[in-house]
Amino acid sequence: MPLFRRVGRPGLLGLAARTAVVAGTATAVSGGMRRHQQQRATEQWEQQQYEAEQQQAAAPAAASIAPGTAGVDLVGELQKLESLHAAGALSDQEFAAAKAKLLG
């Protein structure tokens, strides 16, 4: 051990240690950012694939609607008929006829 302590700039060993710490930190940060960007890109791709699948699934469902009933909310219409039937405004025969007309 030296008799006197060096004052001023760090020695070669101190400079190498500081450089190693800075380089290690930079590597860790850039690796973390790369993983984050890759994860975000993967999530965006999966979201696009999901939306494409939903559009493809919706297209045949829209084509399977009976002609003349396009734009009609079947569930809502059936619920209205049921409430009218329950209230006594429609007889059993009228309810059955209206339901058959809606369902095709």
Automatic annotation (TrEMBL):
Give the SHOCT domain ranges: 77-103
Quote one Gene Ontology molecular function term.
peptidase activity
The record's keywords, sorted A to Z, are:
Hydrolase, Protease
Q: Which InterPro entries match?
A: SHOCT (IPR018649)
Pfam families in UniProt: SHOCT
Entry's Gene Ontology BP terms = proteolysis
Composition bias (Low complexity) maps to 39-63
Q: What is this protein called?
A: Membrane protease subunit (Stomatin/prohibitin family)
Span list, region Disordered = 29-63
